[in-house]
Amino acid sequence: MAARVIVTTSGKGGVGKTTSTANIAAALAKFGKKVVAVDADVGLRNLDVIMGLENRVVYNFIDVIEKTCKMSAALVKDKRVPGLYLLPAAQTRTKDAVNPEQMIALCEELKPDFDFVLLDCPAGIEGGFKNAAAGADEALVVTTPEIPAVRDADRIIGMLESMGKSPIRLIINRLRPNMVQDGDMLAKDDILDVLSIDLIGVVPEDESVIRSTNNGEPMTMTLDSPAAHAYLNIAERLLGHDVPLMDLESYATRGIVSRIKKFFSGKKKR
Amino acid sequence: MDFLKKFFGGGKETSGQVAKDRLRIVLIHDRTDISPQLLDSLRDEIVEVLTKYMDIDTNKIEIDLDRDEKAVALVANIPVLRIKRGSIEMQ
Known about the structure:
The complex is a heterodimer. Chain A contains 13 helices and eight strands. By secondary structure, chain A is α/β, with parallel strands linked by helices. Chain A has an eight-stranded mixed sheet with strand order 3-4-2-5-1-6-7-8, with helices on both faces. Chain B has helices spanning 2-7, 15-31, 36-50, 85-90; strands at residues 54-56, 62-67, 72-77, 80-83. In chain B, a hairpin with a 4-residue loop joins strand 2 and strand 3 (72-77). Chains A and B meet through helix 7 and helix 13 of A and helix 1 and helix 2 of B.
């Protein structure tokens, strides 16, 4: 095996990098791949909590880099899905505890044993981002349909391109189909027009994301929500399968008032 | 009918459209936001090329990015003292 190393990044914080990493990792493992999700957010680790593995963390990847422990001791095996592993970040250290060369070496060490290495990148464009991106070949850029998130995504895409990452693909997260229909939210195509990169998936706004975080169980493990299906589709597309985009409009619940409004305002449906 | 349209917000630009337009302009500016160092080295190289062909007043050169709502232009004002004889003969 020689793993594909993919960094999940966004520039802006809070758009769903960690949630995306956890769900895509779990989905890929469900497809029978051997996957390790690496929390590259040193000092502010959260991937362990999102994956529900926080109680099983003993060592972290800084320990591996500093040779305090072996890689096999730091890897946390997820018992719910075969082939899914977490490599945690150190919580009591800072981003300066590691440099890009060490991250590259870490990824090289993981590559032979996995099909996928997913790096969960911290927000920002400084050291933490550069470290995480250094080890990766490919990138997933997460954005939400809001100006600040898209703007930061544009900046990050520029940096990833100059670092030679390829392919760089976009996840549009937390889209509200009924707001898009009403013309009150940036549409998928509006975002793709300005960023001009390939789209790998659109994840609808979904309350089950919060429930899944509460429970520490990635949605793609249970698959009972629109967001879970969106992430499963993204995983399939990563595997090279041609999966059509979900019909998000069918998730848009329309009330009688908004229909009347729409009739009179003559807004075009997108 | 018109008052109904007005009442339900017809004809008004949607906030999604406003966001799209604002985003486009923000990105035009971001993507051309270059550092003073980069502008300096751009200036030096332009001067280097120009001086092969003409004598220019290097003290009075103005190079900057001119931004308006929709587009960005590189505007240079470079006073020419004289064209070098050699470069005319090359034509």
